[in-house]
Design goal:
Shape: globular
Radius of gyration: 18 Å
Distance between the termini: 12 Å
Number of strands: 6
């Protein structure tokens, strides 16, 4: 069977970290559907949460969960306008070197999954806008204390998804930039690496059975597919 392509989002499909842009977007509170007082309250709420994180009063997961709930409150009656606007901003940072791969994904020429720790509040919509039929992200409806779609949780989500699809015997090709994806890296036959070159070299020494290639070569998967 043809290989199954799994792509990370932040630092991989996007050249930036979408979480940081999401925080900044809310902190600036350019929210035309809200009055000035409510916009000020939103900005203050984001800053307060960031200060609590910096002071060590909350961890990253709690910060992210609280920001998800804040986003849901401020966008509940805007008809999806905030999500669409933020997605348009993120689309500016899609890596041009992945244009061929994403075009093939959108055309249904390859089976691909966008698997990310990013909040589903925007990641699902962004994935669809890029042509993905399958997006695994941090759930919008997760309860407090439930983990993001990261590390072993991301690996398990991918494995669960491909098992439901009957794709468990397909080789995985992973596009990523971070060792947070080590659980998925270990399951992959080929990895296209968008992180620092020194880290790729170190991973090659640790994982000699996996082909770790520079991310800029990712388009070669389209030419290596069997006819």
């Amino acid at each position: 069977m043809p290989e199954l392509i799994v792509l990370d989002l932040d630092g991989t499909v996007l050249s930036v970290n979408s979480f940081r842009l999401w925080v900044l977007y809310m902190m600036r509170a350019r929210l035309p559907h809200l009055g000035w007082l409510r916009r000020f309250q939103v900005s203050f709420a984001v800053i307060a949460r960031l200060m609590a994180r910096k002071a060590g009063l909350i961890d990253h997961e709690t910060l992210k969960w609280r920001l998800q709930k804040l986003w849901q409150r401020i966008s509940s009656d805007d008809g999806g306008a905030l999500e669409r606007d933020f997605i348009r901003r993120l689309e500016q940072f899609v890596r041009p070197e992945l244009a061929e791969v994403l075009k093939a994904v959108a055309a249904g020429e390859i089976d691909a999954v966008l698997a990310t720790a990013a909040a589903g509040d925007y990641a699902y919509g962004l994935g669809r806008s890029l042509g993905f039929d399958h997006v695994l992200a941090t759930s919008r409806t997760r309860g407090k204390g439930e983990p993001s779609n990261v590390g072993t949780h991301k690996r398990d989500a991918v494995l669960s998804f491909i098992t439901r699809r009957g794709w468990q015997d397909r080789f995985l090709v992973l596009f990523t930039d971070h060792e947070d994806d080590l659980p998925l890296i270990r399951l992959s036959r080929t990895v296209y690496w968008f992180g620092p070159e020194g880290e790729r070299a170190a991973l090659e020494r640790r994982l000699p059975g996996i082909s770790l290639r520079p991310g800029r070569q990712g388009g070669e998967i389209l030419r290596e597919r069997p006819a």
